[in-house]
Structure formats: structure tokens, C-alpha cells
UniProtKB/TrEMBL annotation:
Natural source organism: Arthrobotrys oligospora (strain ATCC 24927 / CBS 115.81 / DSM 1491)
Coiled-coil regions listed: none
CC per GO annotation: mitochondrion; peroxisome
Name under which the protein is recorded: Catalase core domain-containing protein
GO biological-process terms attached to the record: hydrogen peroxide catabolic process; response to hydrogen peroxide
UniProt-recorded Gene Ontology molecular function terms: catalase activity; heme binding
Domain Catalase core: 10-319
Length: 320
């Protein structure tokens, strides 16, 4: 997983890592965003339709997976009941063998706050300035949101919390190109949907939960047997934007089931925390059969993850 070949992307990515650490505190050994998480291992079994769309190895044969569920923010001890802990994150690593892998990054809302890394840096700057602002309206944040309606839409969008991490739907906001064996290209966005019926919690019910209820619920559920999630692809049509993660494609677009994520075992401590410190999920596919689109966030997010991941790995120990 290399840094971007664009120096400006890497400069902005480094500034974003610093801004996130400024917002949430610097916690050596933890991610600057989605710091609180846990790892689950299992197997992905693709459908025949997935094999038609992509020649990628994991869409043509069962593949071991390492899944990470997480809370938002860079606070390692954020309560699961805190509204800022949503949207929840779901990272999926397909372990292809020979130290090779490809990943999918999703979170529990189809909304995303920005379309570029520069906009995200400006957004974090507005949040920071807002905290110290004592003047009249418009505040720095109001000014930013007034010129960035997509960020306002993300803030205002519902971000549900269920009884379990596995009771939510997750969305990959970036677009990718599937390449079939015959060279046919299909542009898609990923979605992950639950197969279990878990209740979405009201704000009142959420307040009654324990601070770690999601992380406490998952071990017991997996101890009773594997849990399945469905990986699907939303298929783009001509004119659907691929360069802007904040623009939704119409709900009428075709949905194709790609396969089943069978979650089997929660990694135990201390291995769970050690592996989370080491693993760097990669938004860029880097596998034959799946390619990046023109979405600038892909390159930016990859550099952010790598820069912060190198810092995380270099930390002598985890420090909350």
C-alpha cells in the first residue's frame, strides 16, 4: 500500500491526520477516526452473479475475511450511546493469500460530508474555529455549511443505532469499476445489509444502554453461531456521478447480490487490539478485477489511512 504519487494529496492527508488528532486528542496506537473497534474473522462466499461481473479472485472463490466494526470519532473510549459514535464503521478485508488482500470500507449511512480532502480539512477548521467563536451569526461553521449543502445534509441525516453492529446496513460511498473476464466494465457502489432482525433504538432507549453495549453484545451473539451479512452492489447507469461521494445514485438503480459475509469468530485479546494497531484498511482495491474510479477521495483516504497507520504501528503501546 503506497502513498499517493501526488505530493499535494499527501500534504493534505497529513494535515487531515493532524486536524483529526487536534479534534479528538492524540491517542498513540489508535486511529484518528473510528478509534474504538473490534475484529471478527470469517469467510466470504461469492454468488455466480459476482463472478460474471468481476474476475477478481474473491468474487470467484470463497475467501477468508477480517472484518472491523467501529464507532465514529478518534476517541478510543467513546460510549456506544454517544450520538457522535454514529455512523458506525465496517471495514472488510479479503485475505487473498501470499500477503495479498483487498478491502472494502463502509459506514452506516449513505451520506458523506465532503467530496474532497480539501473540503474535509476546511470543515474540520470550521469546527475548531466555531468552538472559540464569540461573535454574532453566522459562525464559522454556519458559513461553511452555507456553502457546502452536502455537509449539512450529512449532519442532518438520520444515523440509526441498532441492538447490534450486525443489525445495521452499511454503505460504501465511493464508486468502483468491476472488470469482467471478457473486459466488460460495470460501475458500482457497495452496500452491506443484515440478515438478522435487530431493533433500531430510539434516542430514549439508547440512553438506557451501557457505554459498551455494542461491543458486549457481539461476543455472545457469535458464541451462539456464525452471523451472515449480505454484500451487494448498486449498479450505476449512464450519467451517474462517480467522482462525488456526496451525490446519491437513484434508489431505482439495480441491486446485485455479490455474496455472503459469514462472521464466525471474534478475535480475542490481546490479539484483537494488537491486530487493530497493525492492520491498515485500504480504500483503493489494488486487485485485478476491481479498479478505482475518478473519485478523488479514494487516493486521499488511502494516504490518510497509511500516514495514520504508520504512526499507529510506530507507537510503543496503546495509550488512551
Amino acid at each position: 500500500m503506497p502513498l499517493s504519487t501526488n505530493d499535494q494529496v499527501n500534504t493534505t492527508a497529513g494535515a487531515l491526520v493532524g486536524a483529526l488528532q487536534g479534534a479528538f486528542g492524540k491517542h498513540p496506537g489508535y486511529r484518528p477516526a473510528h478509534a474504538k473497534g473490534t475484529l471478527v474473522t470469517g469467510i466470504f462466499t461469492p454468488t455466480a452473479e459476482a463472478a460474471k461481473l468481476s474476475k477478481a479472485q474473491h468474487f470467484n472463490s470463497p475467501t477468508p475475511i477480517t472484518v472491523r466494526f467501529s464507532n465514529s470519532t478518534g476517541i478510543p473510549v467513546i460510549p456506544d450511546t454517544d450520538p457522535n459514535a454514529s455512523p458506525r464503521g465496517l471495514g472488510i478485508r479479503f485475505n487473498l493469500g501470499g500477503r495479498k488482500h483487498t478491502d472494502i470500507i463502509t459506514h452506516s449511512t449513505p451520506f458523506f460530508p465532503v467530496k474532497t480532502g480539501e473540503d474535509f480539512l476546511a470543515f474540520l477548521g470550521a469546527l475548531g474555529a466555531n468552538a472559540a467563536y464569540k461573535g454574532e451569526s453566522p459562525t464559522p461553521l454556519e458559513t461553511f455549511l452555507g456553502s457546502h449543502p452536502e455537509t449539512l445534509a450529512f449532519i442532518q441525516a438520520p444515523k440509526p443505532t441498532a441492538e447490534s453492529f450486525v443489525g445495521l446496513s452499511y454503505f460504501g460511498v465511493n464508486a468502483f469499476k468491476f472488470v469482467a473476464t471478457d473486459g466488460t466494465i460495470t460501475t458500482i457502489r457497495y452496500q452491506v445489509h443484515p440478515t438478522v432482525g435487530t431493533e433500531v433504538l430510539s434516542a430514549e432507549a439508547l440512553k438506557e444502554k451501557s457505554p459498551n453495549f455494542l461491543f458486549e453484545e457481539l461476543p455472545g451473539r457469535l458464541a451462539s453461531g456464525p452471523v451472515e451479512l449480505k454484500l451487494v452492489a448498486q449498479i450505476a447507469e449512464e450519467g451517474d456521478p462517480t467522482h462525488d461521494a456526496t451525490v446519491h445514485w437513484p434508489e431505482s438503480r439495480k441491486i446485485v447480490e455479490l455474496g455472503t459475509l459469514k462472521l464466525e469468530e471474534l478475535e480475542q485479546e490481546p490479539k484483537n487490539s494488537e491486530d487493530q494497531k497493525y492492520i491498515i484498511y485500504d480504500p483503493v482495491p489494488r486487485v485485478e478485477g476491481v479498479e478505482s474510479t475518478d473519485d478523488p477521495l479514494l487516493d486521499m483516504r488511502a494516504s490518510i489511512y497509511l500516514i495514520s497507520g504508520r504512526e499507529r504501528r510506530a507507537a510503543p503501546e496503546l495509550q488512551i
